[in-house]
Specification:
alpha+beta, three-stranded antiparallel beta sheet, disordered N terminus
């Protein structure tokens, strides 16, 4: 194989790979090593066998590798919560999470790494990020599927939000069959009630992925609900990113129109209210625990914001400590409970 590797004393893959990182087992439970192709690389003759991808420290070629004709190298992860491609550009590369954009914490860590490694920084074309209201562990997906009696045996792909406006979750199987469930009334219900959330996400205030050159996110506005096309908004922070974006518009790959600042905020209202208006309640709770929390507390914290955070924090802890009890609760109850919390974050 053209790309080979060895394992050092720390268990990390080295040699010809440009970077290697380890995902927390609770998230993905796998090692990943990616080769960064030099600029103007001719990828026309590259096949999956030419790219080495090490999963679970096994050193075996992953079956989740695909090389697209347009030159995009896609590394698929064998985790049902994350089956989306991570892409490398052939005129450099960009880093993204399994959703074609880096999450806030990933982007901050990657940006810090670039400051320590100038040679790596020079290779980066753009950093693409995603708006993020928080990350969840795998049970946010596995529990709803289990309660709907949907097996992952023989599954090849999971679509989280297929279709328009919230969408449907679909599991595709190797035999061509599918199982579908309502995303907002199952998986999303647990997530938006803060079950299975990570503690760091509960207090994070970087919603728009400020370390990215371009950040993307959904537009959750009532007036967009009946639009036949699901739109995406973006925040562009650098001249290079603006040129890349405009080039895509000029080529017809993107149809763009401006969204004003007020709509950008309204489209993310509940997430921003939880991050900023509830910040004072978060800081006070941490002080009672003898911990210091540095957050922006300038937002007005009303009783409803305090209650939303209190319920959200309890739900996070409950899902960590009493999973069996949570699994016994009917899904319809979780959904309406989630709706109540979202109402608290609406004013």
């Amino acid at each position: 194989m053209p790309f080979t590797t060895t394992v050092d004393d720390n268990g990390l893959y080295r040699d010809v790979f440009d970077y290697v990182f380890y995902d927390d087992p609770a998230v993905h439970g796998m090692w990943r090593a990616y080769k960064v192709l030099p600029g103007n690389t001719d990828i026309s003759a590259i096949t999956g066998d030419d790219i080495f991808h090490a999963d679970n420290k096994s050193g075996h070629l992953s079956e989740f590798i695909t090389v697209y004709p347009n030159g995009t190298l896609a590394f698929y992860q064998p985790n049902p919560e994350s089956i989306e491609p991570t892409n490398l550009w052939t005129n450099g590369y960009y880093i993204s999470s399994p959703g074609n954009g880096g999450l806030v914490c990933q982007m901050r860590a990657f940006t810090a790494m670039l400051e320590r490694e100038p040679e790596l920084k020079e290779k980066v074309v753009l950093k693409l990020g995603l708006y993020c209201s928080g990350s969840h562990n795998e049970n946010a997906t596995l529990v709803p599927l289990k309660k709907k009696k949907i097996s992952l045996e023989g599954a090849k792909r999971l679509y989280y939000r297929r279709g328009h406006w919230r969408g449907l979750s679909t599991v595709q199987y190797e035999d061509g069959s599918e199982r579908t469930l309502s995303y907002p009334k199952t998986i999303c219900a647990y997530k938006n009630a803060y079950f299975f959330s990570r503690e760091s996400c509960m207090v994070c205030q970087d919603h728009y992925c400020n370390a990215a050159d371009i950040s993307f996110g959904d537009i959750w506005l009532k007036e967009m609900k009946k639009n036949p096309i699901k739109h995406t908004s973006c925040v562009i922070r650098s001249e290079r990113a603006m040129k890349a974006f405009q080039s895509a518009v000029d080529d017809g790959a993107i149809i763009a129109s401006r969204i004003d600042d007020s709509k950008m905020l309204r489209s993310q209202k509940r997430a921003l209210v939880f991050k900023f208006n509830a910040a004072k309640a978060k800081q006070e709770m941490f002080e009672k625990m003898g911990r210091k929390l540095n957050v922006d507390v300038s937002g007005k914290c009303r009783w409803n914001h305090r209650l939303a955070f209190k319920l959200g924090w309890r739900n996070m802890k409950f899902s960590q400590e009493k999973l069996a009890m949570l699994e016994k609760m009917p899904t319809w109850f979780i959904y309406y409970y989630m709706c109540f919390i979202r109402v608290l974050l609406s004013f």
